[in-house]
Prior knowledge:
The structure is a homodimer.
Chain A: H1 15-29, E1 36-37, H2 49-62, H3 81-93, E2 103-106, H4 109-115, E3 125-130, H5 134-142, E4 146-151, E5 170-174, H6 186-199, E6 202-206, E7 232-237, H7 239-242, E8 250-253, E9 259-260, E10 263-264, H8 265-276, H9 282-291, H10 294-321, E11 325-327, E12 333-337, H11 344-355, E13 357-358, E14 360-361, E15 372-376, H12 381-395
Parallel strand pairs in A: 1-13, 3-4, 3-5, 5-6, 6-7
Antiparallel strand pairs in A: 2-8, 7-8, 9-10, 11-12, 12-15, 14-15
Helix pairs in contact in A: 2-9, 3-9, 10-12
Amino acid sequence: MKLNNNFDNIPESYLFANIGKKVNEYKKANPNADIIRLGIGDVTLPLCEAVVTEMSKAVREMGTPEGFRGYGPETNCYSYDFLTDALKKYYAKKNISLEDHEIFVSDGAKSDLGSIMDLLDTDNIILLPDPVYPAYLDVNVIAGHKVIFSNANYDNGFVPLPDPSVKADVIYICSPNNPTGAVYGFDALKAWVDYALAQKALIIFDAAYEAFVGDSSLPTSIYQVEGAKKCAVEICSLSKTAGFTGTRCGYTIVPSDLVFDGTSLNKRWQRRQTTKYNGTSYIIQRGAAAVFSDAGFRQTREQIAYYKNNAAVIGAALDELGIWYCGGKNSPYIWLKCPNGMKSWEFFDLLLEKAQVVGTPGAGFGKNGEGYFRLTAFGNAERTKEAVERLKKILK
Amino acid sequence: MKLNNNFDNIPESYLFANIGKKVNEYKKANPNADIIRLGIGDVTLPLCEAVVTEMSKAVREMGTPEGFRGYGPETNCYSYDFLTDALKKYYAKKNISLEDHEIFVSDGAKSDLGSIMDLLDTDNIILLPDPVYPAYLDVNVIAGHKVIFSNANYDNGFVPLPDPSVKADVIYICSPNNPTGAVYGFDALKAWVDYALAQKALIIFDAAYEAFVGDSSLPTSIYQVEGAKKCAVEICSLSKTAGFTGTRCGYTIVPSDLVFDGTSLNKRWQRRQTTKYNGTSYIIQRGAAAVFSDAGFRQTREQIAYYKNNAAVIGAALDELGIWYCGGKNSPYIWLKCPNGMKSWEFFDLLLEKAQVVGTPGAGFGKNGEGYFRLTAFGNAERTKEAVERLKKILK
């Protein structure tokens, strides 16, 4: 049996696994250390009441002959109407009109960001931003694609624009961005859509953090930009919208208008999903739909406000310390320039050892991340304040 | 953007979608028809009490600050100890010793049967049985693999043995088999393990129906056969073990001993899963663990007994009608030879039109399935009896 040896071309360990290892070693050496984690992008607030109520009901239903559900509706790629309807209404509020068959419920964005590789020929040029969420790079290396980068940096505020002289087949955009927290405006996103259309390229738009956008002058979906339905897939998740990191649900939009060489990507994705996926749990789909009910929406947006307040607390401290950063306003991520010209892992070690605060070294996200550092707003408010005080103490 | 045009080589519609279409057309033309579905392999009994209780508890936990869980443990590919421990004990009862890191919790067998393609080079020869569960074939066609078949037929009782003169890199075995219900004995399975070891081939063993094996002289895991840990991955699901078709949980075993060209498949699979998957919902993992509790095990085995009784009812009718079949004893599937030399779809139409019973045409599973027909035991007991009476009436 011949192995896919593209795996040899990706680093053996995953960034967050490396961080975990460093933290565990530190804890072993300092068992009483009071560590505050502002590193991995995991949420901390419990699921909201509306979601808990609906999932509890769904679990009970599943235990009764009348309420039991087996495989989800095959005709709709296992997505239930109650959830696709809720999502259609959510998109309608963004002035985007979607059909049922354009909405695919998933078990989270990460699965679909990987699964979509199945639709692509090996011979494609993939354009990623640098710095980048590592999984985008890794899945493309595993698939044997040629990967090129666009530079996100201090000069362009970490929102790079397309270079028409660069040939690309697939373009990844994440806005609000992970790891930088930077958000594309309408004009910049339009430039990418126009570029993709001109290149006959596919945009994979990761909207996982869209719910953090409070500024109404910023897009929360790529389909708010004209022409996007002809060139973009949008992948979203409830992980950050509603604290579903451990509950697992997301959705992927593949518009009917998305046609390459006469082939409907929507039909291809349907075929992929019915062959290699069997749907998201009925119970979880019920919980996901509750996120978009009046109560669920209010409750989850309160949680987002809580996290955004953490981001504001971190931002205020960085302002006070005179440290440059982006993100943190319409995003749960704060991307800061390491003070005193420090390198990313150097700053990681300093924060861990001197302040017992864990963040994520920017270098883990690509060469342009070197010298930068990611903090997240997903912690407890009191603990975030405590972390900020410690930062101020060691950096002043 | 260049598409993966291997998709052009698979039939556009999926077998069960075709059946669904035919049934819907019949229902439109005959709105009062009382249709009994013994076709698609979906379960009908509700989740057992032990599973409902544990999932209800997990949902409530997720709504509290103390009980909330985000991403699953990354170090264990997002599988929780409480579930891997339960699975280790389940395998120990089969005299198989597993380590935590050899057990990967999934959202179902179908996902992992597809995802495992990522580990394989395109240049591999895949040996499938014919007839075959369509997804095995489709995922390999999508991946661009060369597929060859071993003939399962009347003469070998639908349990083909390896032909040492045939070169294969990856071998699929499903036992108890879908669609035929045939079950491999120890000697036959040992022949496949020896063949795989000699060929340096990988066996993908689908054990989704293992819980239906009542005969203790039959293996329920490939690892009960010596040498299997050096050549086989085992993919299993709780869909049929515990009625999880709509709840979604399975597990995949990738032994540490599985090494190809000096590369650990276990480590590769870990890397694949941490990159392209984010784990199974905590709530669902709690439900899955409950399946292996004393109460859960008893309750789910009672459900299996109920389904096996349906299989016995169908089998008795076929015996009475003098129709040859296999399966139905240690399997939920009954694979019958269409009477009077009828073709599979011909028999499908006859049953639908004359008896309003829906089954699955054997031809949908491959050329050796032509002239055969699959019935499943997953229906309601009374309805199954009614279906059997209708069959007797039209076939006597």
